[in-house]
Input
Amino acid sequence: MSKVIKNLKFMALTMGVCGSALLAPVQNVQAAEFTPEQVKELEVLFKKFLAENPEVILKSVDDFRVSEEKKTQQSAQENLAAYNDYFADTGLPMAGNPDGDVTLVEYFDYNCGYCRKAYMDILTILKEDTNLRVIFQEMPILSPSSKVMAGYAMAAHAQGKYFEMHKALMDYRGGQGDEAYLKLAKDLGLDLDKLKIDIKSADLLASIDKSSAMARDLGIRGTPGFIIGDEIYPGYIGLKGLRDAISAARAAQSKK
Output
């Protein structure tokens, strides 16, 4: 019995799971090798061991989380390589230099406060860096109005005025709704009749869904999220973070 208990302690220290799952190996083994009485005794001893050594669970959880993060990052990098042709498309919503040596991709939501900060950072960088290409990818996840605004931006893109509408929506601070967004579009000189048709287009809605799905494939779960060169940056990284990431991407490219 002492040997069995020693083995159980070893399992507790080496397994990468927690909670009830820690007892699963005991339950799997016991039916074949132990009597019902022994099973109960082993479970009591196992639970006692965990109660007296809670750090085992914490370490198991931490190890499991690190392992899963590594898998997610690896999968995201593989997916990013597969999307190279997509991001090379000159028809995507963009700003800056179409032939820039570094591409910055932003996933964002118009209702996201940090996205508004990132928007100001990007405007600053576009003034500083004339060799940067910026691609905008809609990721409307915060509210129904987020998707409505994304639709207006993409409908403006169909008229060649994406960035103008993007800026208007990012700068806008009034009440939400079609009336307000149509006024922004009118002020930009957009064809409102065409806009109203395009915003309901199945292709337009599919493009928004596609960009959101791609973000998930790239490990971006919230907004904003960035791809700069060959690196993925989930979350807001600030003006300095963007500058440093662009410099790193440029340096990496010069070595290829």
The first helix runs from residue 2 to 14. The first strand starts at residue 94 and ends at 96. The chain has twelve helices and five strands. The chain has two domains: 2-80, 85-254.
